[in-house]
Amino acid sequence: MPDPAPQLGKVAPRLAQRLVGMAAAEPVEVVIELAGPPPETGGSRAERVAAARAAFDRDVVDVRRAVAAAGGEVLDAVWLNRTVRGRVPAGGVATVAADEGVAVVDLPRRIELDGPGP
Prior knowledge:
Layout: H1 4-8, H2 13-19, E1 27-34, H3 45-69, E2 73-78, E3 83-89, H4 93-97, E4 102-106
Antiparallel strand pairs: 1-3, 1-4, 2-3
């Protein structure tokens, strides 16, 4: 069985704090950042976009499996910023974080404008 300490390092502090006191079966919505940048390639913009999408599609397979193994579900996946949004039981967050394809597991963040809108 792998040492849990390294995987806990992949759980963002906000999420770790949220997990305190939660029942293991209680679902928590998470955002999972995939490890590693997409491969740099030459070629046209269209070729670079296609390569980034293909790399994400390959890399996300194991993360989807980790979420399912933890008893969770994938809600969305975005190739552009290499993230997956999912719902995982609180007790399964460490299982997801243990996947080598995962860089960080965090809570979703609300996107807000820095200044006045258009």
